[in-house]
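Please, structure for the following, as tokens.
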Amino acid sequence: MDFLQVDVFTETAYLGNPLAVFPSAGELTRRQMQAIAKEMNLSETTFVTSAARDSYEVLIFTPQEELPFAGHPTIGTAWTLRRLGLISGEEVYQHSPAGPTPVRVRGHTLWFTRDGAAGGDLEDTDLTVLRRIGEGLHLDFDAIGLEARELGRSGVLRPAYANAGLQQLMVPVKNLDALAACRPDAGRLGEVSPEGAYCFTASGAGQVRARGFFPGVGVSEDPATGSAAAALGLYLAARLGSVEVSVTQGVEIGRRSLIRIEAEPGRVTVGGSCRMVLSGHLETLPE
């Protein structure tokens, strides 16, 4: 069975977040898909079960479990199917267990749009949450939180959940030093958020640096997390109004990625580039 591997959220090979795409996987069972994703050992592997001119159906797996939606697999799968000529047009729809997701072409980038929501600050309902998040990330209490003036707005950003297809814990930290100091403890972090955390800080006007830690789904640190970036857009828009930001992620693990976000309250659009890296053939299918 043929597959391709593409680096997502980058224009440079061997940066960004690698994704394996199986473009003709309609005959595989979910059990086989999970075994293959474990063998590929990437953040995610996608299996396209059908494709037409303006839509396709896909299932997404980490090495440990199936996901209803994920961001870099959405961009990477659509980009790969367009390259293969299996889909065409300026707008197509991805169908996954999280529902339909429109994917649009703008120049050399692809953009997906998701509706979603952001919750309130966690400390409003749990006074111990900052301490527990700090323990889960090995951060001092005062390193958690970000002055919104760093993004050209007012107020203070605090940890909260947001959901653009997957619920994600947003953890703003005060500066780049605090971001670099994050060292997740899977057990303690899992007590607050079973999946993990998306940590971010400001790095300039309209610029964000982020790190994604998701040990709960088998990803210790993700080079680029489109679903979490989408959730970040919803989180920021709920607190600051409509925003446009660029997120740099993966620097600390040598896989610099660039994710673009345009968000308004309740809706977010995420964009990025891709680069084809390799094609291959799976000789033996799992039972």
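The chain has six helices and 20 strands. The first strand starts at residue 2 and ends at 8.
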